[in-house]
Amino acid sequence: MKKDFHAHSFRLTLSIFFMTVVVSCIFFLFLTSIDTSKKGSPFRPALVSPTSSSTPLFPVSYVLDGDTIEVLIDGKKERVRLIGIDSPEFGDEKNPEECFARESSQRMKELVDRKKVRLESDPTQSDRDIYGRLLRYVFSDGTFVNLAMVADGFAREYTYRGNSYRYQQDFRGAVWYAKDKKLGLWADGVCVSVVK
Question: Which residue positions in the chain have pLDDT lower than 50?
């Protein structure tokens, strides 16, 4: 009788152990499948289609830097400042060049230079900034350019005067992604003066 009790107790303990392992595995698979857009998530945000593929395409005539491009709209050159991002700036007589400015500009060229892009406005933002540039989200070949620049570490998320914008949470998640993966200006040993 005592032997049967110990055998039954052993089988019960073994069953509970295996059930715990199975439940833990299922829980782990569930957690890793969630797109939390936070540090450590499997989030990869750079490829997103525009909200409407019926919007017109505009040729990019020039890339000024990592957050400003020039496009042709009805034959007129228009400067476009990408909403929600801030890239390192080139220097001038008064200010030195910021770390990663050249790399940021080069990445923007790879994404849009001499290509046709879709532009999307945001009703939460002005149509133009104080310099007369159009404020837009930019899409090129299925890539959400604003988001890709942040997610790949070539720009920081930027909220103008605390005025939240449509994709703000996505961009903030992209910053976590870039920092977590140590991409671009967030890489070890790069831009050591940048507040990380």
Answer: 25, 27-43, 46-47, 196
* Protein fold of 57-186: OB fold (Dihydrolipoamide Acetyltransferase, E2P) (2.40.50)
pLDDT (tens digit, 9 = 90+) per residue, 11-33?
A: 767 667 666 655 554 544 444 44
Closest CA to 87 of 136, 166, 38, 148: 148
**How far is the C-alpha of 17 from the C-alpha of 37, rounded, in Å?**
33
Active site residues: 81, 89, 133
Q: Compute the distance between CA of residue 48 and CA of residue 153 in angstroms, rounded to an integer.
A: 17
Read off the pTM. 0.73
Determine the longest span between alpha carbons in the chain, in angstroms. 95
